[in-house]
Amino acid sequence: MPETTPPNIDDAGHEVRTYFVRGRNALVARANFSELFVDYYLHLADQKMHPQAAHDAMFKRALAAFTLHCASRPWNELTAWTINFQAPLVNLFLTGDNTNGAVTGRVFDDNVKELPENLFYADVVRGNQPTRRSTISFTGAEPLAAAEKFYRQSEQRVARYFQIGEEDFVMVTEHPDCDMAWLEGLTTEAMKTVDETETLALLERRIYRWHCGCNQERMMEVLAPAMRHNPEELFGGEPKLEIRCPRCGARHAITREGLEAFVASHAE
To answer: What Gene Ontology molecular-function terms does this entry list (predicted)?
Structure first.
């Protein structure tokens, strides 16, 4: 399988910190997402992508929830979320690789399938183990609430999400012997002063970067089956075509000559 382009390690990235709450047996993950949101917007501008304002706001909240989730997971885990909303009719896709701290995603608002209910899909690969998928239904149009429902129903434990500033988000998750009354009773105001009211022990500082890793070879791999089946239909008589990465929406121009060479060198 073609390799992805690795993240630029010279990029300082964005820090997410996790803490253990002593006496409560819970984990806190928190970060300011202003710089990660800037990188997301730079990506949109570079790729000439213009999601609707409402969809964009939903994606940013989903990105915050997803990144905090990743920071609480094992280092060898790759995760993808697809969150389907029926009102508004939109899919939010997010993916992250804890081995290199890469997170990315995109808004899908064209040809979204109408379904009886909202659906949340989570795909996880840990090390060399096979992919595990879980699917849950949820109500409403709030990504943070959807993530909380995912935790309760799929992870079988409680997670609470809070926005404590314009671009500051916190996740609190249940650990064994957790003080559930405390966790369930948390409020946004309480989380703003949690450093003063609780004893937090720093666990980790992790760095995340907006990065997909898509490249020409990856896109050719996507197009290869169609090229083998009907190259004329694929290119429509043109010498090249444009494809958008299904993960981040980045544009890639693929020439027919280049794809022919790729298919020839990867004969089935």
So the answer is: unfolded protein binding
